[in-house]
Amino acid sequence: MSRAGDDSAETSAGSSAAALDGTAELPQTAELPQRGVTARPPIEARFETPGAIDLPLSMAPLRHGPRDSTIQFGRDSVWLARRTESGPASLHIWTQPGESAVRAQAWGPGAEIALDAVAGLAGLLDDPAELVPRHRLIRELQRRLEGLRLPRTGQLVPALIPAITGQKVTAGEAHFAFAALLRRLGEVAPGPVALRLPPTGASLAALPYFEFHPMGLERRRAELLRRIGRLESKLEPLIAGSAPEACSRLQEIQGIGPWTAAEACGAAFGDPDSVSLGDAHLPDLVAWALAGEPRGDDARMLELLAPYTGQRGRVIRLLEAAPIRPPKFGPRFTPGRIERL
Hints:
Elements: E1 2-4, H1 17-20, E2 43-48, H2 55-59, E3 71-73, E4 77-84, E5 87-95, E6 101-107, H3 111-116, H4 118-121, H5 136-144, H6 157-165, H7 171-185, H8 201-206, H9 219-230, H10 232-235, H11 243-250, H12 258-269, H13 282-291, H14 298-305, H15 312-321
Antiparallel strand pairs: 1-2, 2-6, 3-4, 4-5, 5-6
Helix pairs in contact: 6-9, 6-12, 11-12, 13-14
């Protein structure tokens, strides 16, 4: 990795001074909400890549619904808000045609530390070659989705928050609650794009449970969010260990089961073996894709994924990205709105 900053005499390899203030070398992106360029220019880093990387595809699991204001996607780039030990930061991560590298810019007090997380976020620490395909479909998906990597955020509590809002509700309900939580507790991030930071543990712990109700969160999930907020200083050090160990420790907390632990550890560690047991749709997807069976359960899913032990999460991600959809039966479920009760 090479890096340059506003007080550095040199820029990163292949960059120019203009790139550091955001006026050059930026890819064409989709329309993003603008906040206006900040006074201090960003710092920049360049990361060599071992092969093709599709950033939006790889980082897609880090987006929790269309109104997730912590992250925005362009055609070949991703904007992301992040907290660090030194303060808040915004990241702009992108690739350029014909270049075997990922580039990143960072704004805010936590810019330096945020840049250190780019290799994980962009999937540069992931090795898709570790997956040995046992099915023709998986082999074909590996070929078609060669730019897919598993991102690693390196932060456990920010990964737990959307996992908890997603407990035992539909995707739409989960996305609504998470977006509402960001509007209430997520501060505006530094940088030129309108992003919001994930809530802090302290802000979650300080909010009375009934204040979560207008966000679509009943008391059970609200109290769990408050609980992990209080435990933030004890939970974050788990990132220094292994994903299985962290998943086991998380499930010692009342209200966190295998699904929530797997969802959080999959994102925080970039765990290629993460399997979210108890998911309403995942067993059907795996059963349909790998066995042609329209319905499955956790036991059948684990049986079909057994040949991929160590890489089961990667197989699931390939199937999700394909996309493959099992047959639908029965009427569509219409959820209620907790905040209207």
